[in-house]
Design goal:
The complex is a heterodimer.
Chain A (H helix, E strand, L loop, with lengths): L2 H37 L6 H5 L10 H7 L2 H33 L6 H13 L2 H11 L6 H8 L11 H29 L3 H9 L4 H12 L1 H16 L3 H6 L11 H11 L3 H29 L1
Chain B lengths: L1 H19 L11 E8 H6 L4 H7 L3 E8 L1 H13 L6 E5 L3 H7 L6 H6 L10 H5 L2 E2 L2 E2 L2 E6 L2 E5 H6 L9 H15 L6 E2 L6 H9 L5 E2 L4 E2 L4 H15 L14 H7 L4 E4 L2 H9 L8 E4 L12 E2 L1 E7 L6 H12 L1 H11 L2 E2 L8 H4 L2 H10 L2 E2 L7 H16 L5 H15 L1 H14 L2
Parallel strand pairs in B: 1-2, 1-3, 8-11, 13-16
Antiparallel strand pairs in B: 3-14, 4-5, 6-14, 6-15, 7-11, 7-12, 9-10
Helix pairs in contact in B: 1-3, 10-11, 18-19
The chains are: A mainly alpha, B alpha/beta.
């Protein structure tokens, strides 16, 4: 057998081995994505379910209609608010908790780790019911505590200005435990000698954190912030359960809007268009974060 | 009992069939399996009514499948797409238009005309109307509901009123009197800002049809709707209603008991809840009243709600399915169903039963049901209601003036209905001049 023959044979074998995985990805990922893209160019709706000849190909009109509707931009604003405020807050809370748990002076670490992780695995609906009471204007614990320091009652879920902060507060509390565990693993992978060496050189606690811990956590940071951003852009369950997108649509996120269009009004073409815009935003966001991290290196 | 006579007759018919079959030998009677989808509590208790039906109709077996309300709409739709709809189902009457538009439902006009049991005149007219989509009848009313006023009689008395007056003007005066009695921080009425039902009702009461041109355009900028909308907004502007949604009032029953509000527009499902959840000492002091209207109680209409029974177009056992519908429509079965569920019967003669005569809280519903009208019967209505709610909420919170809220609403609704206009236009072109 000639050399070329061996190579083509090897290439063929490689394809054969890859085929099962590729066909699965093709069928369950690329095909639906392409179908979704095509769907987003039609006005497929409840009449389309009844008979396909009521479906019109409308080009980019779904996208145009979205880009000119205040409902879409409102949802975009709310989502960005949630991502830009909630994301960093969540990272800070996770990192803070991880640093605390990693400190040698803390006892009962396993106990606290479990406690902090518990909200992550708790059912959101159950959590939301409890938080609705915490947020209650007149009987809520939160307002009770604020009253003690002289701050007037806040209508957390009823005031359009406070509803999103309330959602962020709950989401951060619910999710920080997951990233905390990843940060904890990152912290433990930083060699102890580096800290010792820095301490011998006379670095204080802050300097050690700034120049040893943070650089050591850089890969973890990238992973955690990308995952958090992707997760937070898909804000859905919290407002769905707590506020149904209100008051004044101030907590309607992009995914909630997509859900409403698709599964409440059955305008599946429009819902697909929203999904593609979201996909585009996520791709751009992830790219930007990779760039940012690389430029620092 | 008529059931015995019926089965004897069918046995005779069967015998005749076998004889005429000649030498083919004894044939098995054909077994019919009916699939029935019931929602929530109704789907649970209707099973108890099936043995009697099956005894009267040997050869028919009914398999009841219970479906939770929250999943019902999606499940029906997926069943339709997957061609696995049941034979018979309970359908919320605001859903009928959508499933009729899909072509999922069997038109029942001919069967009703031939039936000795079902007759449109024995039903509340507004309720019967909800089953008429364009020119055909697609369902038989099963049980009904509508919304009316629940109120605190003790507080109203203190404010100088023995009952709820009939006209909007007097009703408002009563609310102001209530507010004077209960004092600051409390309200006369609770109209949840996340529910458009009250606005729909006020609009209909003021004579608006909500949509116009055969349901292809909104009628929200016309004077009639404006009048209802202004009445609604005025209650918030003048501090008679708290600008709060259902999710903000953690427990409606508690707040009603505390006197945070004294009036609440809601439906018959709350009759049982109020009895269960209000404290003992308040049980004698709440009442129900038909809704007031802009020009006295005759204009105090409310929405026709409830559920109908439908037969699906894809069913292969439509005759058997129709017999089940007839059985469930009989007055005695309607009363039995009421006792099992508390759902109000759709047939008027069932209301003469002694179970109702002594209960003024239920009789108020009977009076209201004589004055109910359907909401617009098009598939898009659910979405339009949501837009109404959004714009009304903005107007309540002062984010929009009433004028711009209604103009924006009208624009949005006309955009939503674009597809419908296109479909109607196409159909007209196809049918030719």
């Amino acid at each position: 057998m000639s050399r070329g023959g061996v190579e083509t044979w090897q290439t063929r074998a490689a394809w054969a081995f890859l085929a099962p995985a590729l066909s699965l990805i093709g069928i369950f990922f690329f095909l639906p994505v392409i179908a979704g893209l095509l769907l987003s160019l039609t006005d497929f709706d409840i009449y389309g379910i009844a008979s396909l000849d009521s479906v019109r190909f409308i080009g980019l009109r779904n996208y145009l209609r979205l880009l000119t509707s205040d409902a879409f931009w409102g949802a975009m604003r709310n989502t960005l608010y949630f991502v830009l405020v909630g994301g960093p807050l969540s990272l800070a809370a996770s990192l803070g908790a991880a640093l605390l748990l990693n400190a040698r002076v803390v006892r009962f670490r396993t106990f606290f780790r479990t406690i902090y992780f518990a909200p992550v695995v708790t059912t959101l609906v159950a959590v939301a019911v409890v938080w609705r009471y915490l947020f209650h204007v007149r009987y809520g614990l939160l307002n009770h505590a604020l009253a003690l320091v002289g701050i007037g009652p806040i209508d957390w879920l009823g005031d359009p200005h406070w509803a999103m902060p309330a959602i962020i507060l709950m989401a951060v509390w619910k999710n920080f435990g997951y990233n905390m565990l990843i940060f904890l693993a990152g912290l433990q992978s930083i060699p102890e000698e580096l800290h010792e060496a820095a301490a011998l050189d006379g670095a204080g606690a802050w300097q050690r954190f700034r120049h040893v811990t943070l650089p050591g956590l850089r890969p973890t940071f990238l992973f955690v912030s990308v995952i958090t951003m992707i997760g937070y852009f898909q804000l859905f369950a919290e407002p769905y359960v707590m506020t149904q997108g209100g008051p004044l649509r101030s907590t309607t996120s992009l995914v909630l809007l997509m859900y409403e269009e698709g599964f409440r009004w059955w305008r599946l073409g429009m819902a697909s268009a929203i999904a593609f815009i979201l996909l585009l935003i996520l791709l751009l966001g992830t790219l930007a974060q990779f760039r940012l991290q690389r430029s620092r290196e | 009992m008529s059931g015995g006579g019926r089965s004897a007759a069918s046995a005779a018919a069967l015998a005749l069939l076998i004889l005429s079959g000649g030498c083919a030998g004894p044939q098995e009677p054909r077994k019919v399996d009916l699939r029935f989808w019931g929602m929530g509590r109704e789907g649970e208790v209707v099973q108890e009514m099936m043995p009697e039906f099956e005894a009267a109709n040997p050869g028919i077996r009914v398999r009841v499948q219970q479906i939770p309300w929250s999943a019902a709409h999606e499940k029906l739709l997926t069943a339709f797409v997957g061609r696995s709809t049941p034979d018979v189902a309970q359908l919320g009457n605001t859903w009928l238009a959508e499933f009729a538009a899909l072509g999922a439902l069997e038109r029942l006009d001919a069967r009703i005309a031939a039936s000795a049991e079902v007759d449109s005149s024995v039903y509340f007219p507004g309720i019967w109307e909800t089953n008429r989509i364009e020119r055909g009848i697609y369902g038989i009313p099963w049980y009904v509901d509508t919304r009316l006023l629940f109120y605190r009689q003790d507080i109203l008395r203190k404010a100088g009123y023995d009952s709820i007056p009939g006209s909007w003007k007097e009703w408002r005066a009563a609310m102001e009197a209530v507010r004077a009695v209960v004092g600051a921080g409390r309200y006369a009425i609770f109209l949840p800002t996340n529910d458009p039902t009250e606005i729909e009702i006020f609009g209909l009461q003021a004579g608006s049809s909500l949509l116009k041109d055969g349901g292809t355009r909104g009628a929200f900028t016309e004077p009639a709707f404006r009048r209802g909308f202004d009445f609604f907004l005025g209650l918030f502007r003048d501090g008679l209603a708290p600008p709060a949604s259902n999710t903000q009032i953690a427990n409606v029953y508690q707040e009603f008991a505390r006197g945070y509000f004294s009036m609440y527009i809601t439906g018959p499902w709350n009759l049982g809840e109020f009895k269960r959840r209000l404290p003992e000492e308040l049980q004698g002091s709440w009442a129900t009243s038909p809704l007031p209207g802009p020009d006295g109680s005759q204009s105090g209409v409310s929405l026709a709600g409830g559920s109908s029974l439908v037969i699906f177009e894809a069913s292969k056992e439509k005759d058997a399915a129709w017999r089940l519908l007839e059985y469930l429509s009989r007055p005695e079965q309607q009363m039995r169903f009421y006792r099992l569920t508390g759902d109000l019967p759709a047939r008027r003669e069932a209301w003469r039963d002694s179970a109702f005569a002594g209960d003024p809280r239920i009789l108020a519903f009977g009076a209201q049901l004589d004055r109910v009208v359907p909401s617009p019967k098009i598939p898009e209505w659910e979405e339009i209601r949501k837009r109404v709610q959004d714009r009304a909420e903005q107007a309540v919170h002062g984010a929009l003036t009433p004028d711009s809220a209604l103009t924006l609403l009208q624009d949005q609704v006309d955009t939503i209905l674009e597809k419908r206009r296109w479909l109607i236009e196409r159909k007209r072109a196809k049918d030719g001049p």
